[in-house]
Fold this protein.
Amino acid sequence: MITLRNLEKSIDTAAGRMFLLRRIDMEVRQGEFVTIMGPSGAGKSTLLSILGMLDAMWSGEYYLAGHEVHHLPPKKRAALNRDLIGFVFQSFHLLDDLTVAENLDIPLSYRGVKSSERQAIVADTLDRFNIVGKKDLFPSQLSGGQQQLVGVARAVVANPKLILADEPTGNLHSAQAREIMELFTELNAQGVTILQVTHSEENASYSHRIIQLKDGWIVDE
């Protein structure tokens, strides 16, 4: 599903060039559930942003589902992201001027799902996440935990082949967090590939393997 070869990310600072990721070689097979862990500043979220094609300023080789991402122009990268990936953002990234239901509808509309089908899928997803009563509210009217639930629901609503999750349960209480991890386990059992960044040992225990990052390097697997 994912192959990285000598992937690097650097930025220019007043002190000179600083590497955020160094010589990353990594493979994630179709249907795997993989956790990325490491201290703050290790490069975890940076790596996830590159995998989600939200960051184009990097070097090396990135293969996703047979596509050479490093050779794709921006429009084709965006289309690949839209068709294959569901992203759970640590900071939610909900659209403030849309209701909960409308936020869930957006990924479906981008994929060309018919309006009648979208309504049914959104309704099912609202029910699945126990947020039916929040469907007409705007993100600013929700708590942090509720926004997190909506963010996870939006990531899975269009049945992506790959879920990238950056601290997917960071704002949830323990019971909600377990529900989300059990949902990820269920989706993974159905063949969805999942890559999560987390500090939680409990969340990591749901995955097949753990990749440890430190100072931009893979130090253990």
